[in-house]
Amino acid sequence: MFKKILVAEDIESINQGVHSILERLQVQHISHAQYCDDALLRIKRAIYDKNPFELLICDLSFKKDHRNVTLSSGQELIALLKKEQPNLKIIVFTIEDHPQIASTLINDCEVEGYVLKNRKGLAELEEAIKKVAQNKSYISPQLATTLKRNNLVVLPEYEIQLLTHLANGLTQDQIELHFKKQGITPNSRSAIEKRLKDLRDDFNAQTTVHLVTIVKDLQLI
Amino acid sequence: MFKKILVAEDIESINQGVHSILERLQVQHISHAQYCDDALLRIKRAIYDKNPFELLICDLSFKKDHRNVTLSSGQELIALLKKEQPNLKIIVFTIEDHPQIASTLINDCEVEGYVLKNRKGLAELEEAIKKVAQNKSYISPQLATTLKRNNLVVLPEYEIQLLTHLANGLTQDQIELHFKKQGITPNSRSAIEKRLKDLRDDFNAQTTVHLVTIVKDLQLI
DNA sequence: ACATCCCTTACGGAAATCCGTAAGGGATTG
DNA sequence: CAATCCCTTACGGATTTCCGTAAGGGATGT
Predict the structure, then answer these.
(1) What tens digit of pLDDT does each residue of A165-176 get?
(2) What's chain B's average pLDDT?
(3) What's the half-sphere exposure (Cβ side, CA atoms, 13 Å) at A80?
(4) Cβ A121–B205 below 8 Å, yes or no?
(5) Confidence class for position B150, pLDDT limits 50, 70, 90
(6) Cβ–Cβ gap B168/A210 under 8 Å
(7) Which residues lie closer than 8 Å to B179 by C-beta, 6 or more apart?
(8) Strands B89-94, B138-139: parallel, antiparallel or unpaired by DSSP?
């Protein structure tokens, strides 16, 4: 079992719940951070002290308050940490069940666990901690099944840019111009139209407005 | 102070936190419901038993699981309850800080309290319970300030329909036709165009796609 | 080399949207 | 009653988007 764990989570009542589990698992050093910035500092400090954390249990969304923070989300924190301390195990503990977001963290950021805060969340978290301590990984069952069958759509960077510009109010002419300035290809009017047509087909969108709302709902842009 | 309180909340660790507060406030009867349907049943039953609840502390979002539920959100529950037991006090305790949603609950559904689950959430909840027990109302400070200055936009039903149809892939021609069938006026092509132009101006949208993404982000549709 | 495939670009016409103007019809007000 | 205001509708032209066709170029395979 882990000896030194950091919990990054801003809601106190959930912190209490997590803490009680860690105590039951007889974790010796339990630290808490209510801000992402704090979490990063503590982890850096622990490395400097030659006594690094072994596991981070991390929420994704942190409420803003009066404090100025540079890291506002768990995603940013995790992305940094994988450079700072690659051997640090990470379990995401969040209410966020959107497959797109979970998939990015699991596959790209390579977190070791992803646990949903639901009715049985704490029990699952305990399970996850045990698994990860054995060098296995853990993903909440509901999420695991949807991730498997849900053949996730990942939009290529080009399509993301195209749709984002549309959503932000650029006309196709403006996008063509912009792509030419930035050296992004293809940038002809024709190609842009064709991509949009293909995307409409792919997503069964009747109009371009429809298309943009669909990809926004799917959080692809 | 209240003697009989129901807590509708699906995440166990938060339930624990709320429970500990209610105990400190020496509430005699504390009930919990992990599903909206359960909450409704318990409240009805309590009325039938001539021993109704005095206060409901209610989350908004409830995770779906294997159980079939008819009420899937706190909003639906609250809307029903205000008919079922008009004198029941309600405090919303949620992570949802979108002013649009909060405003609807506070002004339309007339809940007595709206507390955000943030770093000081439990302390605020305690404060709210005390206030509401004195027939006052309570709104989380952060929210209260934004609600005041944020001169909330409320879109008339007609505009909501128009934009929703656009977002769902109808062309302006199809919308004109649809409005005529439904007897919704104005339904001329011209009027539809004019409304969209006005809306684009109101929201500083460059294009119609832009407009739709803006109102979707604001959760106006 | 040649054929094939895939992608980009170009072009032209159809369709949809955008925009301004103007006419008509209620409601309000002097 | 007349004047005014506001909204709806109609219409025409400009702009934008949509769609099909075709030409050109690079990569791959035979």
Answers:
(1) 999 999 999 999
(2) 92
(3) 16
(4) no
(5) low
(6) yes
(7) B185, B186, B187, B192
(8) unpaired
In this predicted model, what pLDDT tens digit does every residue of B81-131 receive, in sequence order?
Answer: 988 899 999 999 999 988 888 988 998 888 999 999 988 889 999 999 999
Same domain (yes/no): B108, B60: yes
Judge: B18–A13 Cβ closer than 8 Å, yes or no. yes
**Residue A122 pLDDT more than 70?**
yes
Name the token pair of B134.
């004195």
- Give yes or no: residues A116 and A168 share one domain: no
**C-alpha closest to that of A11 among B195, B168, B115:** B115
In a 13 Å sphere around the CA of B10, the CA atoms on its Cβ side amount to 22
Final residue before a domain boundary, out of B149, B173, B200: B149
Contact B12 A16 (CB under 8 A): no
**Do B206 and B114 share a structural domain?**
no
| Region label for B53, one of left (φ > 0), alpha (ψ between -120 and 50) or beta (otherwise) | beta
- CA-to-C1' distance for A211 and D12, Å? 31
Please tell me which of the candidates B17, B63, B166 has its beta carbon nearest to residue A13.
Answer: B17
Given the structure tokens 């943009």, which residue do they identify?
A212
CB contacts, 8 Å: A205 with chain B: 169
Q: Is residue A48 located within the same domain as residue A135?
A: yes
Confidence of residue A145 (pLDDT cuts 50, 70, 90): confident
The domain in which residue A45 lies consists of 4-149
Q: Indicate the residue among B132, B149, B166 that finishes a domain.
A: B149
Q: Which nucleotide is nearest to B206 (CA to C1')?
A: C18
Give pLDDT, residue A99: 87
Q: Do B163 and B207 fall within a single domain?
A: yes
Residue A150's pLDDT is what? 67
For residue B147, give both structure tokens: 């609600």
CB contacts < 8 Å between A and B, how many? 114
Which domain CATH number covers A21?
3.40.50.2300
Based on the domain organization, do A16 and A72 belong to the same domain? yes
- Chain A residues within 8 A of B142 when measuring between CB atoms: 65
Burial track B137-169 (b if 16+ CB lie within 10 A, e otherwise): bbbbebbeebbeeeeeeebeeebebbbbbbbbb
B135 and B59 within one domain: yes
Is 0.70 surpassed by the pTM of this model?
yes
What's the Å distance between residue B209 CA and nucleotide D5 C1'?
A: 33
For B19, nearest residue in chain A (alpha carbons):
A13
Other residues' Cβ atoms within 10 Å of the Cβ of residue A40 = 19
The percentage of chain A sitting over the pLDDT mark of 90, rounded to a whole number, equals 71
Q: DSSP string covering B137-150, please?
A: -EE-HHHHHHHHHT
CA→C1' distance for B190 and D13 (Å): 15
